[in-house]
Amino acid sequence: MNVVITGASRGIGKAIAEQFARHGAALFLNARNEETLTGTVEDLRARFPEVRVEAFAADLSDKEGARRFGEWVNNSVDGVDVLVNNTGTFVPGSISSEPDGALEAMLTTNLYSAYHVTRTVLPKMIAARSGHIFTICSIASLQAYPNGGAYSISKFALLGFSKNLREELKPHNIKVTAVLPGAVYTDSWNGSGVPAERIMKPEDIATLIHAMTGLSYAATVEELVIRPQLGDL
Q1: What class has domain 2-226?
Q2: I need a labelling partner for 85 at 20 to 30 A (CA). Which of 106, 132, 162, 230 fits?
Q3: Are 83 and 165 in contact (CB under 8 A)?
Q4: pLDDT score, position 195
Q5: 170 CB-side CA count, 13 A
């Protein structure tokens, strides 16, 4: 199985990579920071020496960077079995007061990255009439909340992207799943004062994504909403 993961150097993306590596999948990873990405690759290779782990550093918020990564994937594998669009960023604020450029930053990183990477690798998936595309959205894709601003707008749009992709790819036998997590304990929560046990673990999301790839040919989870046991923060 060939698994492509963006935003894979830490957090949810790295947890997904680890989960698939445990089951012997070949990994093709991306992150913007080459040093951090290299560290992740070295760690995975050391822990899973039998697994192929390759990486390509690129800023996917840049259209050409996203395309270059997609083309690298196409040149590296015969086919893509799983694509996980996980690249994302968060700038808190309200529409009326957030920094100028916040919307553009959120859209290019959270939405356009997934759009351009997916468009680049899709022809091979369509030709093979197989594959599964996961897009990491958010509960912010479903409900506006205080201080959400441009982030929530971008995540609403990302869910729309996944919904459209699902309809388009039904005839091509390609599965599409939007993953909508609540709070997950990643670096962004460091120093927040919120107890780690109050928030979900990246491994929770990774376990569910891997499980969905094991469903029968006839079954597709279109949207998966996951929240902390005690609810949203």
Answers
A1: alpha beta
A2: 230
A3: no
A4: 85
A5: 8
Listed in sequence order, the residues at least 6 apart from 168 whose beta carbon sits closer than 8 Å to its beta carbon are none
Q: Is the pLDDT of residue 138 over 80?
A: yes
Amino acid at 109: T
Q: Cβ distance 212 to 168 under 8 Å?
A: no
Dist CA 173 CA 94 (whole Å): 40
The domain limits of the chain are 2-226
Q: Tell me which residue has tokens 């070949």.
A: 26
Q: Which of 36, 2, 1, 34 is nearest to 14 (CA)?
A: 36
Whether the model clears a pTM of 0.90, i.e. scores above it, the answer is: yes
Cβ contacts of 192 within 8 Å, gap of 6 or more: none
pLDDT at 188 over 70: no
- The tokens for 77 are 């594998």
Closest C-alpha among 109, 42, 80 to residue 175: 80
User: Are residues 60 and 30 in contact, defined by beta-carbon separation less than 8 angstroms?
Assistant: yes
Q: Which residue among the candidates 145, 151, 185, 217 is catalytic per the annotation?
A: 151
Distance, in Å, from the CA atom of 45 to the CA atom of 158, rounded to the nearest integer, reads 32
CA distance 80 to 30: 15
Tell me whether residue 151 is one of the annotated catalytic residues.
Answer: yes
In 3D, which of 169, 177, 171 has the Cα closest to residue 220?
Answer: 177
Could you tell me the sign of the dihedral formed by the alpha carbons of 164, 63, 56, 89, in that order?
negative
